Amino acid sequence: MVQRIRSEFLHLNAHQSAHLAATELPAEIPRNRLPDQGLAADLAYELIHDHLMLDGNARLNLATFVGTWMEPQARRLMEECAEKNMIDKDEYPQTAELEERCLRMLAELWHAPDPSAAVGTSTTGSSEGCMLGGLVMKWHWRQRQQAAGADSSRPNLVMGANTQICWDKFCAYFDVEPRLVPLSHDRLHLSGEEAVKRCDAHTIGVVGIVGSTFDGSYEPIDGIQAALDQLQQRSGLDIPIHVDAASGGFVAPFNSPNWSWDFRLPRVVSINSSGHKYGGVLPGVGWVLWRNQAQLPEELRFNVNYLGGELPTIGMNFSRPGAQVVGQYFNFLHLGRQGYTHRMAVLEAIACHLADGIAALGPLRLVSHPLGQLPVFAVERDPGISHWDVFQLSDKLRERGWLVPAYTLPADCEDRAVLRFVVRAGFSRDMADQLLEDIERAVDWFQGLEAPMPQSLRGPGFAHL
Ligand SMILES: Cc1ncc(COP(=O)(O)O)c(C=O)c1O
Q1: Is residue 218 in some structural domain?
Q2: Of the residues 308, 332, 356, which one is the last residue of a structural domain?
Q3: Which of 465, 449, 434 is nearest to 389 (CA)?
Q4: How far is the CA of 217 from the centre of ligand 1 (A)?
């Protein structure tokens, strides 16, 4: 490879510009130290391109929730916007307008009482949306405590142990005690009953997830609201809900339109979602919305008057790519309600086909089923089998290029190891059948072993949570 580059380089050197002639190909490719002299753009491209060839194939990646496919027209638009900075609303008012349109569409989709009064922002992803949602709840709680002359130094946040890592980060970064509700073998996510047991006067809010990162299930946001209503009747505590709809914000409105999980529930003050998950955009764009202006304190918005009107700037980042926001608007325009509904129905059908096919093999059983939840499910090994495990199955599938993560469930179900399948746009029924064949072949291989797999080869392969 280096030899090829060297000869190509020498060829360029002999015939091309003084710029290239001034560039020396280093004996070694610089890895950890800024090279003294640069390479020609063509050579740098080829080196890096070749380096990246060993990455996994994004389309065979059933680990990630993040979009790996978009229509070519969307990619072209995003390429056209590659240099636009989302924060430059003054310079790129048309892009800023598309962000506003997306926010209004989401406010309507998530049933804000008055979509034009909802307030929100695009973000880099759901993590940033969760940080902002959590911070605003903390802000309101502190105001209430101070107004009542009560202690405002020990805030806590109640959520299931299955929440995504961004909530651990939120609690660590912003000094909030995480009150994690452990799972049980017959309840793999938060319930209203368990949530209220951990709530007290220092609870800034409850986080409900639509749907769970671990198994794709929807948490009962309506049940959590009902339990919090009863708590308020008993104790006077008025505790809000933030819905982390990182994945479900673009799925539940289409596959469960009659289920109230969003602003239809009065306790839901804010919702985040990832445009780059089931919103169908390549990474990274997310969204966070508050039900109305009153929910977002003045102190946390930084108003600018570009575009002739007052626009709140809320996000944590300043500079951010505008292209993804444009990609989101493309999807809204191109798919519309009907297109998203169709897409989610197709993904659900493919995920159900895959889940049922895997369950029919015998040695694996379903931990969750994708029907009526995210097109995501987890499986575990039948308890009667002990001579191989899901980590080894995950490795075996990787030999064929499939990326299917294996991991243990969170507290109190750490003794259960699962494989998780995330079905996204771009994963066809054909691919599902191919994957089923490969799983069957791998499982047959393990089942045919005369001795157990060596213990030393067991253990977590890779997890993607
Ligand atoms: C429920 C949930 N919340 C938050 C996140 C973080 O989202 P992002 O990767 O967009 O920051 C994820 C990511 O998978 C998630 O599943």
Answers
A1: yes
A2: 332
A3: 449
A4: 14
